[in-house]
Protein: Acetylornithine deacetylase
Organism: Falsiroseomonas stagni DSM 19981
Amino acid sequence: MGAGPQAVEVLARLVAFDTTSARSNLDLVRYVQAELATHGVESRPVHDPVQDKAALHAILGPAVAGGVALSAHSDCVPVAGQAWTGDPFALRQQHGRLVGRGSVDMKGFWACAMAAVPGLLAKGLKRPVHLCLSFDEETTFAGAPLLVGSLAEAAPPPAFCVVGEPTGMTPVVAHKGYASWDVRVTGRTGHSSLTHRTANALEAAAEAVAWLKREARRIAAGGGRAAGFEPPWSTIHTGTFHAGTILNIVPDLAEFVFEVRSIPGEDGRLVRGALEAWLAAEVLPGLRAAAPDAGFTFATRCYAPPFELPAGSALLGLAQSCGARGGPLRVPYGTEAGVFQRAGIDSIVCGPGQVAQAHQPDEWIEEAEMAACCAFIDRLGDALAA
């Protein structure tokens, strides 16, 4: 079973836009707006502060309460250094697969949503379908909070949201949150024979990293637990560390990056607060004794809240009646579902393709998966028209 020529054609157009996160997505947004306009659908861009990116919101059907959002992100990961066998931004059809950057993560889902617009409008929807397109999901998560925070400006927000990340059309009802920071430590340099006159930024940073490791061990041994996750506790990871030049010069600068992946019900940002409190009490006094201006600077890289669909929500049953298959699952990676859920919009993650194909060279999505997604959206339209 193929995906249908309209969905494949739309996907080809979407893949042709290089929307890696370091680039603007405005050309893609304008294309989507123009396509929606051909069907008489108005859309509302929500720009970032520097005006070079935008999220997009459109409503199909009446602007009343009780609708369902179909949510995707427009950005994709870079292709540099990957062994592609063809142009990453030219969609190729190979043995039932559609190959191109972003095909599975997650322009395939958005192509299905756009291809469904005429059919959804023809159903005479009694409750609306909200089309929600974000930006920077792969990096800072800046787009989704802007978009979700503005939904009520246009109409009553949707009651439910389907985030179409690749799950093989299996419903995901919970995932961990994600928070990460860049940390910069400044001290005072000098000759290593006179360390009493210096403030060693490398050693201060190392103490912070050691604290993070101790905290990770404490959580693993006796912290909160959430069934269905691997591992079932929150995790802390330090990914990079840079400091120093040569041995006999005390480093006055050190930098490291760390992340927290938190189970539902926990807030990874609290780890940063606890670390800062410990540093203020145990590390900074000694560091500033020799260098009053020494210190730690934390810059947030990304924050994606954890997500869990409430047990009594009707959304899971609705998704299953529309063709979501298997599950439900809980996954360790993050999506924008937590942003919608925190805004009071019950959410589920369910989309075509497999996450194993995401971010890879020759990224692909099966046409049959897109066909299943198109059928899912069509049945959802029937439910909203009933």
Q: What stands out?
A: The first helix runs from residue 5 to 15. The first strand starts at residue 43 and ends at 47. The chain has two domains: 5-175+306-385, 177-303. The CA atoms of residues 11 and 107 lie 6 Å apart.
